[in-house]
Amino acid sequence: MAVCPTCNHTNPEGAIQCEACFTPLPTLMPCPHCGSSVQSDATFCGNCGQTIDPQQLVVSAPEEEEVPIPIAVAPESAEPIPAIPEVSSTPAPFPVGTRLQSQGASLVHVQTQTTLEIPAGLTVIHLGKPNDKVPPDIDVSGFANSDVVSRVHADIRLEGNEYFLEDVGSANGTYVNHTALLPGNRHLLRPGDRLALGKGDLVTFIFQLH
What we know:
Blueprint: E1 2-3, E2 10-11, E3 28-30, E4 37-39, E5 105-109, E6 115-117, E7 124-128, E8 138-139, E9 152-159, E10 162-167, E11 174-176, E12 179-181, E13 186-188, E14 194-197, E15 204-209
């Protein structure tokens, strides 16, 4: 039974306030000596008569049991996720020995085996002899029989990586592999082609790529 400290009304066990005056009732605690129920503010036990230290009636809240957190484990049958390879932002270097360069060409004088390099960086190469109108890029005046070659004789034109030969109105004509090249027509040069400036195959060149 719980006795109201205000009006001394006896209340049933477990009541939290007085039935008569509605005063909050002290809670019941077990006597630390005999285990009988006593009020939480009691200074002695009515059953065993022992003095009660209020500190002995303080009941600490039970510690909560730590619940382990389950760890997700992949099933043994699961296949491992393949790692994604890192992509390098640095461009791969050119293999050793590889060089980027434009294709060059040359003319080999048949009569003397002299090699004349076709000038790089030009799209139109003039063949002939010195003059005030169109100075030649390849001057053939130093070769024998050059009198059959006109001062403005022929042009070699570079388009992409291809070389074309055309006669530009020479007096004695231009020949490719012993066939006359008509003025205004162009011939796509191939390695080994035989070019003759003028009649008689006297000033002749072999076209080469390198």
